[in-house]
Amino acid sequence: MTIQLEFLRDIPYFSELGHDQLESISKLIFEQNAGRAEMVLLEGESAENLYFVASGAVKVFKTSAEGKEQILSIVRPGESFNDVPIFDGGSNPASARAMGPVLLYGIKKNDIEAILKEHPQVTLNVIKVLARRVRDLVSLVEDLSFKHVIGRVAKILIEQIGTETNQVPRLTQQEMAAMAGTAREVVGRSLKALEEKGAIKLDRYRIIITNKEALQKIMEVSY
Amino acid sequence: MAEMPVIAPEKCDGCGLCVGVCHLNALALVNNIITIIQTVECDWCADCEAVCLTGAIICPFEIIVQEP
Q1: What is the pTM (predicted TM-score) of this model?
Q2: Binary contact (B49, A173; C-beta < 8 A)
Q3: ipTM of predicted complex
């Protein structure tokens, strides 16, 4: 197994480190493969390792008591996950699942402590990474708790069918998110909620408005 | 022809993340550009769109009203 030092250099945790430092850290890194849909972490379990995605993508999410998923982030190559429990000593705050075949670089909790003591630059880098993470999560909390996104999504759908064109309106979740002033992850959840309320039906590439009056009502109540 | 995600080749940076996350194996990199291999009908999970940082692949939803 050879950990690519060039790849490590691009990981925010290890930026601004010299070749020798990267080489010393690389000796503490192990590789772990995960297949499509394989769970990498389970919420509530004790945290053993910090992970970096080397290739592929990992979905980090929480599951409600009713089994609903809220995606917290999609972790792409070079990015880390499971940082929080590694540093606060608690259990995994969220679950993580491979979205396809994934190669992970892992570092054991004890080894991370050794790295931080040995390489102060890594500590500064970790602070930046965690500060960015807090900023992203604060934004998500704002979206989920203060904004009536479901009403905005209902409004967007109603506005689309009101346009006087011959073409069927088409929107991506990303576009709906931009229009609603929220994150893509929140739009997915809102669409599912609208379906549960019987206002729309999601049918592959179609959003079928099955009850326009119900959609209108949701828009008026929660916009 | 089955409805499939829409690709903007000029935006594709060839990272291949979408290829890996497509659980129907409907995508491939051809000459380092994302391409649809239409062997199966896409189920519109939109994971490819979610992982793409450049907006090179999108899964637009048609918005239609069901007539009563």
Answers
A1: 0.80
A2: yes
A3: 0.83
